[in-house]
Amino acid sequence: MKLAVSAVEPASVTATDMFREHGRYAFRLLRRLGVREADVDDVLQEVFVVVHRKLPDFDPSRSRRAWLYGICIRMAASHRRTHRNRRELPVDQESEPIDHHAATPLEIVEARKSLAVLDGILSELPDPKREVFVLHVVEDLPMHEVAEALGCPLHTAYTRFYAAKKMFEAAARRARARMSLP
Fold it and tell me: Considering the entire predicted model, what is its pTM?
């Protein structure tokens, strides 16, 4: 009888649990993967609709975070393809939420400028390289989880990462040079 008790699986994870655990990271990831600010909430909702639909088929031996990030990457790529065909003009909106209680107005402005520079640099990277770079550097995923999320060999993930790192560093140098000009 003890074998039957120990074989009982813990309560299954729901889409709500996944949202509570990873929603903020998914939001930030979508922004860094090129989803426009005005569209992030909609794409995030689509991500968690997919999570809800696919959760019963999820392999519990895999990393939930890598699985979710793989969904985010596919949804962001789909959004970018669709967005290229639109003829809408983007409207400036407030970017990611910044804790206004912990910062002075000057710090808030500087944080927004820094985020805008980061978004600009990331937008220069080709999609496959940006995806690896964002997952590994910004989201701090171990490279084996990055490869799992992208569905590519580990060696390919490392190759894309090192190429992205070089491109990012060059773009960061150009951005610093532009900001230091009078």
Answer: 0.66
d(CA 96, CA 113) in angstroms, rounded, equals 12
The pair of structure tokens assigned to 54 is 């696919």
74 vs 161: CA distance, rounded Å = 18
Alpha-carbon span 18 to 26, nearest angstrom: 10
CA–CA separation, 26 and 114 (whole Å): 20
Which of 79, 8, 72 is CA-nearest to residue 38? 79
What domains are defined for the chain?
12-86+101-180 (1.20.140)
* Radius of gyration of the chain measured on its C-alpha atoms: 19
User: What is the reported pLDDT for 10?
Assistant: 43
CA 5 to chain centre: 39
When pLDDT is cut at 50, 70 and 90, the band that residue 6 belongs to is very low
Report CA 92 to chain centroid distance, whole Å: 21
Mean residue pLDDT across the chain: 80
Residue 45 phi/psi, 5-degree rounding, is: -65, -40
Q: How far apart are CA 136 and CA 20, in angstroms?
A: 22
